[in-house]
Amino acid sequence: MQLVNIISNNEGLASLANLVGRVGLSVIFILAGMNKTQYFEDNAQYLASGGLPEFLLPLVIAFELVGGLFILAGALTQITALAFAGFCVISALVFHNNLADQMQFFMFFKNIAMAGGFLALASAGAGRFSVDHKLAQQ
To answer: Mainly resides where (predicted)?
Structure first.
């Protein structure tokens, strides 16, 4: 059954796939945090449109930027990935819950898919190319 475990049986390939996956999961949040900083007022209004207080925006920006960098570097990966999984589900429920609108339907399930990716990352850990791996070796 080599075909079933084609990646997990090869430590180098598994670590590389983990790194590429972390890059993919982190970049959207790093860019979103930068966007929220650049267009702060518009994003504060969007947050308020979801029924959340605007004062949460700096916390959201910090979470997206710092958490995104943690995922990218593979630092505190399991805890950060769990936090992002929750963040994605909450964002889907609060901001993309109009499933009759095709765009919101896709945005909702994009968030759910990202939550699944973060849960898989939390389960697998950061892999060899990570800060977590370096800290575990000490």
So the answer is: membrane
Name residue, tokens 């992002």: 84
Asked if 81 contacts 71 with a C-beta cutoff of 8 angstroms, the reply is yes
Q: How remote is the C-alpha of 60 from its chain's centroid?
A: 13
d(CA 99, CA 79): 30
Q: Which amino acid is located at 17 in the chain?
A: A
pTM over 0.70: yes
Round to whole Å and give the CA distance between 34 and 21.
Answer: 21
Using DSSP's 3-state secondary structure scheme, residue 4 falls into: coil
Instruction: Report the distance separating Cα 93 and Cα 114, nearest Å.
Output: 14
